[in-house]
Every structure is written in structure tokens, then in C-alpha cells.
Amino acid sequence: MNALAAIGAAVLAMLGTVGRIALFAGETVSHLARPPFYLREFGHALLTIGYFSLPVVGLTTIFTGGALALQIFAGGARFSAEAVVPQIVAIGMVRELGPVLVGLMIAARVTSSIAAEIATMKVTEQIDALVTLSTHPMKYLTLPRVLAATLVMPLLVAIGDTIGIMGGYFVGTRRLGFNAATYMSNTIDFLEWLDILSSLVKGAVFGFIAALMGCFYGMTSGRGAQGVGRATKQAVVAASILILAANFLLTELFFAA
Amino acid sequence: MIELHDVHKAFGSNKVLRGVTLTIPKAQSMVVIGGSGTGKSVMLKCILGLIRPDSGKILLEGEDVTRADRDAFLARFGMLFQGAALFDSLPVWQNVAFRLLRGSLKRPKAEAREVAVKKLRRVGLKEDVADLFPAELSGGMQKRVGLARAIAADPEIIFFDEPTTGLDPIMAGVINELIREIVTEMGATAMTITHDMTSVRAIADNVAMIHDGVIQWTGPVSEMDATDDAYIRQFVSGSPDGPIEAVR
Fold first, then answer.
1. Contact at CB, A125 and B104, closer than 8 angstroms
2. Which residues on chain B are in Cβ contact (under 8 Å) with A125?
3. What's the predicted TM-score (pTM) here?
4. How distant is the Cα of A218 from the closest Cα of chain B, in angstroms?
5. Most Cβ neighbours (<10 Å): which of A44, B69, B137, B207?
6. Among B181, B223, B179, B232, which residue's Cα sits nearest to residue B33?
7. Is CATH 3.40.50.920 correct for B2-237?
């Protein structure tokens, strides 16, 4: 009976959190239609989430693209399909690995940073100070970050896809003996607009999730250093899981026959 | 004038405020004293609307604060937080001029900076502090910046939450003196919460003592030492013996 009660309590707690996140997301979006807007904060968020994530995105995707080319070449050799390396690298990067890896790296870099920053602000009464200075914390802290991440992530994913494909290209042409022109033409000819569209949409959704989780867990953090640590950990875990779940749903939506 | 009538607030089973009734007269400095965890900060946050009381009324100039226009209501307040609560990402002058750079009180940047520098001077800080970040300042300087921010928009009412906590006695004396001077020259209504008796004597016109979620005693600071009230006598003397339970 105790075990059942514990399971029930855990399920109720989880449903409660889901509800609170949904309300938080709704309130965040509702501020899009209600001035004032803090453009300076938005610009700052664009810079920190977008521009400063470029090295992480580039390094992650170039190595993945290269490794993918090696794997497909080695795996394809088992059934004499080594020649499909450019096409599979392109489709793998654009449809799946690009958005998912960029999403997860953003969850690690940006979600953690947002959650820790906002949680620290809460613990040190900076959020209360914002309110007393007639500034709505959701407008000043949450909306700029969530909006910036949603808008900038498709761009990051597009850059990640391109760098990943280039990683495959370098390995394919320098290591596996592919002709450079043939590799590029096979890549470009094989990709469809739907592949690219799905990649960009996934990027926007993953950006929304990553920033929203950082803001939610930061705003609802407990007290002290332990509260900040827990909020950061929960934000990254929740963002990562939601990104993977959303990836499955979006793949189903775009590509299920 | 700020009036609290039978204000209750509980967090789960923990009843923090159990019927607080208190009047803070206009242009007077009220200091609320009490032990740690007795509800001083919760009471202050209820007045500001940072926490919604479970029951009771809080009136500002006769108007229910929960029904007042939030922006207009908050524009009348300035607040110095216990840890100063400065925004780490902004330089000192932008912290001080925060309210003047956005919202209904927005002014041109140069003018806002000028006001910030003036307020920094008022609290004893030089102009070269204006471009530093809060992390580059000592605790005492952060408190001064917090004070400058609290008075930047010339508020009618100023709240001070533990203004001398964490400061050495000399710096605490400086902050107390500044608070007294500023409140007097601005003609502001002030409410300070503290358990520092030196602050009480330096800042207060009136004193209220909160214990067990209610106001146990209130009166002019001049009567504090002569009162027969057992709670306030124990608190002022710092004795472990008396009606206030001391955990050893």
C-alpha cells in the first residue's frame, strides 16, 4: 500500500509540474501581446544564446558529421553501399542529428546558464527587487530569453547542419576517397525542402523548450546554493528529455507515411 | 499612512502572521523589531504585494493595496533589500537609475545617469563607482548603492529590510545615519525591519515589536526603554530569560 501511495504521489507531483509548466508557458507567450517590451534584454539574449553558442554548435556538429561519414562507409561496405555516404550524412544531419545535437548542446549551455542565473536572482531577492521597481519579471527575464532562443535556434541548427555536412565532406573526400564535386552534388541533389523545413521547425521548438525550462526552474527554485543547484539540474534534465520527446513527435508529424 | 488590519499569512501549516494590526503614520519612521522568523519580512512583502495575505486588509492612504493599480502603487515605493539585491549584470549607475531607464518614469539616458550620480553622491559614493559592477563593491558600498536605488525616484514611502545586517559597526552606523538623514530630508514615510537595537535607536520615530505573528507592543522609541512589556524588555536587554523562548 505504501508503495502504491508513493507511486501515486510521484504521479500527482509530475502532473502538477506539467500543469505549472503549461501555465508558465502560456503566461510567457501572453506577454508577447502586452507591452512594455524590453528590446535591450532581447538583444542581449540573442547575443548570448545565438552568437556565443556558435563554437559549441560548430565543434559538436563537425565531429559528428565526420564520424557519421566513417560509420556509414564502414557499415555500408557490408552490403556494398559505400557510395551513399554523402546522401546519408546529409539526411542524417539535417533531419535528425543537427537539430537534436544542437538542441541538447543548447540545453547544456543555455538552459543551465538561464536556470542558474534566474535562480540566483531569486535567492538574492533580485526578482523581488524587479517587482518593487515596477518591472514584471516575466517580461524582463523570461520573454526575451524564450523569444530569442526560439528565433535564433533555427539559424544555429542551419549552421550546425551545414558544418556537420562539411565534416562528412572532409572525411569523405580526404579520408574515404570521394570525389569532391560528386560528393557535393550528391548531397545537394538528395536533400529536399521538407528535410530543411523540418530541421528549422525542430530548432525553433527545441529553442523554446530549452529557454522555457531554464526560466521555469529558475523562477521556481528553492532557497540557497542547494536550491540553485537543484533548479539547474532539473532544468537541464527536463529540457533534454522534452527535446528528445518533441523530436520524436515532430519526426512523426513530418515524415510518418 | 499605511494601515494593516488583522493580516494573516500562512505557508502550509506554518502560520507566520496571525492577525497583524499596525498603523504607520505619514512621514514617520516606523521600525519593526522581532526575532528571526517572526514574520517581519513577510509583513513587509505583504504590504508591497510580493506576497498575498490570506486575510485581513492593508490600506495605503485609505485605499486597499490589493485593488490599487500596481504600477502607480509601486512607483510610490522605494526599497532597500537585506543583501542590497543589486542586478549583477548592470553597472552601478544603471542599478540606481533602473526605474528611470524604463516604464512610466523613463527619462533620457544622460539625464538618468545624472540623477544616479547625484543619488550616489548623496549616499557618500564618488562618480567613479558609477561604472563599476556590483560584484566589484564591498558589502557596505553595495548597501549604499541599494539605498541610492531606493531613493532614485524620490519615493513617498521607503522600506528598509535589515539595513545593517552583515556590516561592521562603523559602516552600520554610517548606513543608519544616512537612512535617518534621507528620510527626514525627503519627508518620506519609512518602515524598517531589523533586530539591531542600535539601528532602532538611530532610525525610529516609532517602534513595533512582532512576536508569534502579532504586534506585541508599539509606541514611540522614547518609551521603548521604559515600558513594562515583558516581550520588549527581554528583546531590548537581549536576555535569554523571559516570555520569548530562546533555543539553546
1. no
2. 81-83, 85
3. 0.89
4. 16
5. B207
6. B232
7. no
